[in-house]
Amino acid sequence: MRKKAAVLFCMFATLLFSAYSLFYAREGKVDGLDRAERLSKKAAKDQLDSGPAPDAESLTDAGVNATENADCSFFGPQHDKISAVGLRESLRSHFKDRSPTGRGALTVQVTSKLPSEPPSAEIKFPFEPPYGNDTGSYTNLIDRHIFPALVTAGVPPAKPTNDYEFIRRVTIDLTGRIPTKDRVLSFVADGAADKRAQLIEELLNSPEWLDKWTMYYGDLFQNTSANTQMIMFQPGVVAMNTWIRDSLSGSKPYDQMARELIAVQGTNSYQTGEINWFVGGGMGGGPYQDHIDARTARMGQHLLGMAHLNCIGCHDGAGHLDALSLWGKNGKRTEFWQLASFLSRTEAYQTRVDPNVAQPYYWGLRENFNATYQQDYRLNTTTGNRPARQPAAFGGKTNVAPVYPFSGRGPAPGENYRVALAREVTSDFQFARAAVNYLWKEFFGIGIVDPPDFFDPLRLDENNPPPAPWTLQPSHPALLRELAQDFVSNGYNVKEVMRRIVNSKTYQLSSRYSGTWNVTWERLFARKLVRRLWGEEAHDAVVHSSGIMPSYNLGATYGTKIWTMQFPETRLTTVPFVKDFMNGNRDEEDRLPEVSIQQALNLMNNGVVTTRVTAGNAAGLLARSLSMTNDQLVDHLFLTVLSRYPTDAEKSAAVTSLQTGTRNQKAEQLLWSLYNKVDFIFNY
What we know:
By secondary structure, this protein is mostly helical.
């Protein structure tokens, strides 16, 4: 395919094919880090419905000196970046989805580029608006909260999404793949009233579901071979990846997974994968308390959704968290020490794989190993990554006994400290709230509490509201509570939470909106908010639809992979295409949903795409389709790549193009343009 001809074709069909690259060139980083700079303080403030929590513009560096307090707040290993750019700039991305031009504005822009009418007249909706405030009319607990709230707010919901959009949406969300043409057509033709529920069960029980959610929890638990502080090595990654996958495959209750992470015992991290989570939370370069503190902070963020718990590991919250968290502003450093003390008797140690070679090594854990680990958390430091820990701060006592701050309980007599901590964490209702809220954000774009790792325990209960000027933090506090309770009642079943979400009428609303949309409504969930595909999803969608399979040799430990969704860690650079979609490194770089010109250029010019739109590869989509008539070919390509039929205008333009010039070349240009359409790269 000649690039010049392809570009000319794209220009000719701009109106009809809505090239992804043109969309971003025109709109410009709508979800990027520069957004906060384009917002006024007033606009950002008006959007925030959670009291005095900050917008990106109002954050100042006055409260926390990152250079002095290296592991403060929820910084962790991002210390160097924070020191370089300051606290405010570092927190932009953490609070970005709470601004008026977040997912709601992006959704408006993306849907304006989609076909305005459904791609087929033969579409049947499984339910119809309008929706009322009679909670008894809804069978799904989510809908019992969302739609009455919309009535109260006077905001009409969008219409239900059509079958073509639904199968694509739910297949990507649950499996990270796009549906095949044949599955799309069979689903649309199915007349069963419960066909959406049947499709959901099919996807939840697919191996692709395991791929997607093993990747997701690998991100959440930061499974990586090395971070800025610790080295776990590739066999450790494989072991933890296997533990996550086996846990999901066996429907292991999520509270059991958490207990295994916290209280894991073992001598070889290459065999017992959970050890790597504990080890990876360590902090190098200081006394043993630095390791304990960092692991305590990791537990707080991953399992309780409280990243700012880390802040009181350096100092009391007063004067530092006053504008961020009602709970945090009253938090005491001594409370953090009491929590960290649950880990004070556990040592992580190394064993060389080859006794004569320093690296690689694997990790083991042991309890009460020597004098250091045979006593409770000690107050005897003046150096390290945190301010001095001295007896004067704790009534002159030199050791701090373990106490869980949210229950006031410690270990039973003779009980292993980490076993006690695992019990306290998983019996804490905040554990269930955090777990379901993390999942909610994955399906809806923003959390009921957002950011999802910034829970404020004192602002969650509508029956016990916080004092003015603070307001409730969740957008739907009763829904969050009931969803978390449902999670507990169903045995901490992750699939059941997903089943509730994707079967809800709320999730199945269209991303289009027929009325006038106010971007400040995004937390009401009146329409489906679009999201850009993960880099792995985008890559695997191109591979899957084209039929041309890659082979990525990741080395002796990781082996050979076809699907990037099966890569054991995100930091691998084998596929630069994926990295440009900001998949993070499970350390100081988070997975981000933002858009960039570089992503557009990848879809236009990267070999992942260009080598798969040629008619010369016998295994490819085009080579297997060129015997079709022009009408059939256009329908076939649209259904395979975009999971829908073309509109009349799109089909007319495509058929006309195929009738002029060299047919093979025009077919290549058509396929290339489909991979560059906005509805390919966004899940809507």
